[in-house]
Amino acid sequence: MAIVYLHIGAPKTATSTLQYVMAHNRKKMLNAGVLYPGSIMHGNAHHPLVCDLLEKHRSQAMPDIWYGTIPRGKSWELLKTEISQHQSSVDRIVLSSELFFGQIFSLDLMLRDITTNLQEHDIRVVVYLRRQDQLYSSFYNQDVKGIRQWGHSAFQFYQTHQIFEHGYHAVLGMWCDVFGKSNVIVRPFEAEQWQDFDILKDFGSVIGNVSLPRGKAQNNDSLGMIQLYIKRCLNKVGFKKQDNDEVVKILYELCPEAPTKGCQYIHRSLYKKFRETWLEDNRVIAEEFLAGRELFSQTIPAAEEVAIYELNRMGVALYAQNMFNQFEKGRFRKFRQLFSKATLLVLSEQNLWNALDAQSRSILLEWATAIDK
Prior knowledge:
The protein has 373 residues and is an alpha/beta fold. It contains 15 helices and 7 strands. It has 2 domains: 3-131 and 161-206, Rossmann fold, CATH 3.40.50; 225-258 and 312-369. Helix 5 runs parallel beside helix 8 (168-179), helix 10 (225-237) crosses helix 14 (336-349) and helix 14 (336-349) packs across helix 15. The radius of gyration is 23 Å and the shape is globular.
């Protein structure tokens, strides 16, 4: 039977780009004997597989946005049907969702369920690991920006998100307990360690020397420092997940700013504590999975070398003025109340009431409290 390559992420390791390329080259891959299933693909990834496991084993209702048109509770059945249809022509199957990596609670039950559903196949688990300081920073920024719509501090994020409940080594151990250490393929998310500095070539070699053509890079830039703060305030106010991309697009226009690079959102003493744990984790992974070779060629920087998140209040004031001016012109009417409420929160938290004159503040309040007829 075909070998199943279960690509589990981790998040923020070019998963969107890899999924895009495979989804848009399914026929070419199939001609080479590799199935990237389409029946359980929402967007370019196989997130419904994870969502069905979460609903089954954790009684956790997942948002419709993760399913699209795929019926709940049917993804594994649909997958087996599609595999059966191609069983005579493929020797490899690739399943990809970074949501796999983000699970800790009831993970043992979920993994046993996977082995039952794919019991006729050998399973290889493929995981890319990003340097922890980069993952923490990027993942927090993304969860504020994205449909999870996180609205609180980075400290609360790290303390409550299950992906940070355990270190890399402990998470890998859970997968090894079910699939065996020899079947867990650990790759660094570090261009210096990829063939020709190319993630597509690296991933293609892992899944059996598959040629993945150069595809469209998926734009997933981090928010800038001011954008991040405003988006947190928008998230606190609350709005529909399906409107998230449109809201972010408006935010970019109201507050143009370069993406944040290499910034940490926690104070240096906490970062220093995290760093000690990360370094030990990477040392153990190097010994157990990489025959002693360093997991990352670039070391995690010391606390003194790290840029810490700081908010430019003048930039925040300029955003408030631009936001008011644009909405006063009648633009973005659909989201006027949302941005008005969020901007009032911004002005209150940052004590920037004088960024707008009294009349403008009064109008802003009217927008925020208006009742649509």
